[in-house]
Amino acid sequence: MEKLYIFDTTLRDGEQAPGFSMTVEEKVKMALQLEKLGIDVIEAGFAAASEGDFEAVKRVAQEVKNAKVCSLARALHSDIERAGEALSHTENRRIHTFIATSPIHMQYKLKMKPDEVLERAVEAVKYALKFTDDVEFSAEDAFRSEREFLYRVFEAVIRAGAKTINVPDTVGYAIPEEFGQLIADIKNNVPNIDKAIISVHCHNDLGLAVANSLSAVKNGARQVHATVNGIGERAGNAAVEEVVMAIKVRHDYFKGIYTTINTKEIYKTSRLLCRITGSFVQPNKAIVGDNAFAHEAGIHQHGILAHRETYEIMRAEDVGVPASKIILGKHSGRHAFKTRLNELGYTNLSEEDIDKLFVKFKALADKKKEVFDEDIEALILEEMSDFDKEVKVKYFHVLNGNSVIPTATVKLEKEGNEIIETASGDGPIDAVINAVEKALDIKGKLMDYTIRSLSSGKDAMGEVRVMVRFEDSENVASGKGISTDIIEASLKAYIDAYNRYMARKAFMEKRISEGV
Ligand code: KIV
Ligand code: ZN
């Protein structure tokens, strides 16, 4: 049996994608869940990239106990020092240093000759060894690099002490057969390759990141870089849940290769990421999409009932998808509610949190006949956001119809003060957003707006997701809101995005005032 190590880069490559940035607290929360999932190495950030990243790597290193914590660093002394400093809070640490090796990157980005790149790579690995004995080296754009040069670089960095050599398909250009062949060739042509683990890092520009990673495993790679829900630069990275389940379900094909991932935590991890970043996965997404285990067609249902394996290659329970049960209605008590929370895996909520959730649950049960697990998760999402909310909605009402100008009034609470404003708009949602902007004296550009139903039935809760660029901010803030009323869900989503924007702004201002 041979172990395949899972290196999770959700908090680094994943976070680089627009709309997925996370606060330090959010990263810590995500890292603790990744640890529960059984991830071997958590890349917590790129410590030298920003103060926020440095802080995140440091905090994750302080909090995580079982997984190895890693920081990315360019092949520069200053980057490596920052990574070493941020990771100094744990013994269980890795520095991941990289430099590009493809002709196009060396000529146009680095403006360096191949021999200079090789020398810099070796120097970086040696320097990183001063901070930890676990150094991983990545040859950025390895797939488009010249083979002989790539072999020389890998041989040299392994001699310098790198324990893992990573082979990125940085621009997502490879085809599975070719990528597998590259790994086989590295195994056969790098003389000291037995002293290092071969790792791969595949991007999904052609939708092949998982296929390429699996082909690499078949050919000798023993570490895969991946992200939750496949988030990452551009079209994303290989999705961790897909790689892990492919290895598990097709153990007959990947003979003797296993991961130590606790697959029952997959669904929860995916949902936590959505909750934290205000994103959601497409319904037909493999493993974690809403339809992944739904068997709609009559013929499939008949087959499944007759013998499960006619259409099912894995069970929803294997990845921790809770069976969708109707939970008690408006007459259910706190005890039953708490029991269901536990069954759904929310075992670490305080009594105070449960009290707050129970009040919300009762209010919802008054509006909806049946409260599903999805509805309960939505309540948790709303109630348990991880930052202090600057603004809260006290009430709103909207005048709308086909013969009136849509007009909305909102009452908000900001820093203990109540503000009431009224505005009109092209439609009821536009009117509500205009009223909010007037009340907060801010302008936001709505970059994206999506809505979906969370559970079934006419009274289902609607989930709205928005992406807003506030004022002159370079970053887009995402927000999510849930309600049985889509105007209320939209209002909550907009306020959520504003609160996230303000939380980030306050964090950056605090760091600047501290002189860091
Ligand atoms: O895509 C890439 O090449 C990377 C490296 C830094 C590993 O993210
Ligand atoms: Zn990448």
How would you describe the overall organization of this protein?
The chain is of the alpha/beta class. The protein has three domains: 2-277, TIM Barrel (Alpha-Beta Barrel), CATH 3.20.20.70; 294-384, no CATH class; 391-513, Alpha-isopropylmalate synthase LeuA, regulatory domain (Double Stranded RNA Binding Domain). The chain contains 17 helices and 18 strands. The strands form five sheets. An eight-stranded parallel β-barrel has the order 2-3-4-5-6-7-8-9, surrounded by nine helices. β13 (391-399) and β14 form a beta hairpin. α2 packs antiparallel against α11 (266-277) and α6 runs parallel beside α7. The protein is globular, with a radius of gyration of 25 Å. The model has no long low-confidence stretch (mean pLDDT 89). The structure holds 3-methyl-2-oxobutanoic acid and zinc ion (ZN).
Defining traits:
binds zinc ion; alpha/beta; 3 domains; three-stranded antiparallel beta sheet; binds 3-methyl-2-oxobutanoic acid; eight-stranded parallel beta barrel; 20% strand; TIM Barrel; 41% helix; Double Stranded RNA Binding Domain; 17 helices; 516 residues
